[in-house]
Every structure is written in structure tokens, then in C-alpha cells.
Amino acid sequence: MIRFKPGASRWAPPRLLSRAFSLSVPVAWGATAVAYRMTCPLARDDALGARLVSSAVLCTVVTGLVMHVRGGLLRELRRARSIAEAARSALLRPPPPRVDGLAVAAVHLSADREAGIGGDLYEVIATEHGVRVVIGDVRGHGPGAVRTVAAVLGCFREAAHDEAELAGVLRRLERAMARHLRERATAESDPAVTEEFVTVLLLEILPDGEVRALNCGHPWPHLLTGARAEPLAGTDPLPPLGPFPLPAELPPVPCGHLLPGDALVLHTDGAEEARDREGRFFPLRDVLAEAARTRPTAPGPVLHTVLTALLRHSADPPKDDVALLVLRNERHTCRPAPDLPEKARLRAPR
């Protein structure tokens, strides 16, 4: 049964009037040209002066038509950009400045400047199980990658609250990714879609600062502590989500404690793989270490330092999407667990 929304007909007259007004301008210009040709004696005069006047009138009419069409196209372009920006903000929404005692800041640079969004994703959510974080990178670009980002983020935003264990969140993401790829392959009639994948890093930060991680093929984050930048590395990551099955057991990797004042910098591979004109990779770790030495580890200054250095290094617009997410512990009351050494800090997983 077809249902019509009440009041929908009230919008029909304004739309018709708007349409009629948009057509009235070119009709008026055309009528002016026809009237000049039919009624003005100069239009039928073969003298040079008369021809110049006729040419000027014709140019004026054509210019008016072109300007009207251009104005309409510009309005449509602004409307399309406004809709795209709203969709981008809803999909890859900026995180709040504080999440359960953590200062947060994020930035995303899309390789597709027109789209404004690509295949990178991130989210920070405060749940009853702790603060849960995801950052990921979808293989490829374009509308297909954006749809994959939507599928992964939509699943994470629900699973982060529903699942008591971090492994349960990852299992939900795995099922959502598999279902999404099957649906895309059917809709696009392209079996190659099922070979696409997404790298994902899941973090869980508990109230006492303890950090646990599950890494599916994604770069490990960097820890900013004191005047140092230390990459969290040491264990082999799980396979990316997509055509690669996850193992039966998914024990979270214990990463120690994030103490007050320390910060984590999560990133996608576009930050590490950006090259300059001589083919040299962007020295992300060195830039982060410089930021830790010269500025406080507040998320905003750290992002500003990294972005400035990245854009200066690349010279050209980035060839790949870049996402950066900074989390700084501002819970001044949290302390390491009693059984840990006094100076225990977030460490590389072993």
C-alpha cells in the first residue's frame, strides 16, 4: 500500500513556482531577442552601424542566458556540496574534545579532494566497558570504499556498547564486513569485490588507564610520554577484515597503562607512506618526538605539528587518505595497578 505523507502537497505549489521562475528568465531573454528581430528597423538594416548594434544586442542576450545558466549550476553545486558535507559529518563525525577523562582530537585528509571523505575511519566511544576506539583503512577509494566505511563504523557504534569483551566487538565487525562485501558483490555484479579488505585497530582504555588492543593488519600507534615517541609494536597483527578468516581465539593484547599526561597517536598508513619529491617517506616518529619535546602532548598542538610537517614534506596533495587520532589521558586520579612496577607505563606488547 502506498502512503503519502500529510502535508506533502503543500510543497508542490512552491516547487512549481520556483520552476516557473527559473524558466521565466531564459524565456524573457529569448522573447527580447525575437521582439528585437521582428520589430526593430535596425535588425533589418544592412548598414555597418546597424549590424554592430544588432551584434551588441545578440551578445547581451547570449550573455544573459549564460549568466543565468551559470547561476543555476553554481546553486546546484553549492547544494550538492552542502549535502555531501552533511553526509561526511554524519559518517565520519568529529569526536568530542573529551571522552571520559581523555582529551581527543582527530583529523582526516582525503586523497579525493572533491569527495572530502575516503577509505579511512575512526571513532571514540565511552561505554560501560571502558573507552573503546577504532581506527581503520579500507582498501581502495571512491564510493565503494565510503560504503565500506559506513558499514564498519555503523557496526562498531553498536557493538562497542553491546559486547562486554573486545573480542566480541571484533567478531561483530568481521560478520558485518563479510555481509557487506557479499551484498556489494551481488549489487555490482562483481565477484572481485569480495577480495576487498579493511585494516582495523581496536583499543580499550579502562578507568585505571589499562589499555588492551586487537590489531587486524593496521599500523600500531605511537606513545608520547615525556619527550619521547615510542611505537607500540612487538606482536604480529591479525589478518585484515574481509576475505581473511580470524582465528578461533582472540585474546586482547595487554599494552600496560596510559598514565596521566601520556598520549597515544593513532594513524593510518597514509601518514607513514607519504613521500616527498625525492621518494623519501614521511618521518612520522621523528616528527612526533619533536612535538613531544617542544610542545605539550595536548591533542590539538600535536595534530597541528604533524599536519604542518606532513604537508611541507609532501609538497603535493597526499596520494593516499590520511587519518590521525590523538588521545591524551587527563584522568589525574588514575594510577597503575598495585602489582605493576611503580614506573610502569604503556609499553610495546610482547
Automatic annotation (TrEMBL):
<protein>
    <recommendedName>
        <fullName>PPM-type phosphatase domain-containing protein</fullName>
    </recommendedName>
</protein>
<keyword id="KW-0472">Membrane</keyword>
<keyword id="KW-0812">Transmembrane</keyword>
<keyword id="KW-1133">Transmembrane helix</keyword>
<dbReference type="InterPro" id="IPR052016">
    <property type="entry name" value="Bact_Sigma-Reg"/>
</dbReference>
<dbReference type="InterPro" id="IPR001932">
    <property type="entry name" value="PPM-type_phosphatase-like_dom"/>
</dbReference>
<dbReference type="InterPro" id="IPR036457">
    <property type="entry name" value="PPM-type-like_dom_sf"/>
</dbReference>
<keyword id="KW-0378">Hydrolase</keyword>
<feature type="transmembrane region" description="Helical">
    <location>
        <begin position="50"/>
        <end position="69"/>
    </location>
</feature>
<dbReference type="Pfam" id="PF07228">
    <property type="entry name" value="SpoIIE"/>
</dbReference>
<dbReference type="GO" id="GO:0016791">
    <property type="term" value="F:phosphatase activity"/>
</dbReference>
<feature type="domain" description="PPM-type phosphatase">
    <location>
        <begin position="99"/>
        <end position="329"/>
    </location>
</feature>
